[in-house]
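The pair is quoted verbatim as follows:
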Amino acid sequence: MSILQILLFPFAVVYQWITSFRNWLYENGYKQHVSFPLPVISVGNLTVGGTGKTPHVEYLIRLLKDHKQLATLSRGYGRQTTGFIIADKQASAATIGDEPMQFYQKFSSQIKVTVGEKRVPAVEQLLRKYPQIELILLDDAFQHRAIKPAYSILLSDYHRPFYKDFVLPAGRLRESRQGAKRADVIIVSKCPADIRTAERETIITQIRKYSQTETPVYFTSIDYGQPVPYHPSAVFNAKVLLVSGLANSAPLEQYVRSHYQLVHHLDFNDHHTYTRQDIVHMQKNLEQYGADVILTTEKDYVKLMQAPFADLVEPLPFYFLPIEVRFLFGEEDAFYKNLWQAITHKKTNY
């Protein structure tokens, strides 16, 4: 531990006691879980941000959309609205948040995309409006104990594993490491594609100190696609100005640096709300560093392209870098089998 972490440790003890007591209330029936007559899949983490929830939710959408009537429910971080909203053609990152907007742009013809900070009434409103929905993907909801999921997926970043972290404010954990016991499956995300079997076993051993013994542990990596241009006729050139608003941009920067000529990285905070000044700053950096293109993430792209300052964005050479999740060690079939068994098991309430 660093000196700062040692100084913050007493506050972390208090925070851990509060979160542990809250979990104890749920686990002993003093606070009630709500179940629904359809399966809810929860995707979340123990840490604050940066474990790859969005690409994993997209993976689940692709996996299940042809088999079930799907809806996603997110809190909608960074939006300028409150309450329950069903995404429609008027939706934007400002009204529903960047990640839900990304879901909507990709899958609006196949699923319902919704946001609501109060998850229980949001699910109730969703089912009243669309009773045909058969499955809900609950985004960033591992600590949301009010809904009892049929299947709980816990993500842990390979670069920042929860078993090496500490509770806020001494570390980045939202609750103690023992929270991993609630997971039905644990996915170690953002792994290098060439991770070795011996390292895999070491990581599983560390996770097993906090999870249930029988909980499956899988490993995924991120596959990057070819840059997609704002202007379809554009030609991707060598020198790249990278723009991102992520909790942990290091893996992205490493990839871009190894595949393109990265001249500068404008690294904003996670869920950054872009302004006209930011765009002017990008334009100046484009000229200052002699960059040919501006490369950004997909979730940043949806915000930039819908911003009220689109007149500034439109002439700039913007591209976004698409990503998808890939299971390692041939584990995709095992993951799907466990997931499908959980969501098709006949229950009155899940």
About this structure: The mean pLDDT is 93. The chain is about 35% helix and 20% strand. Residues 3-68+134-223+328-344 form a domain with the Rossmann fold fold (CATH 3.40.50).
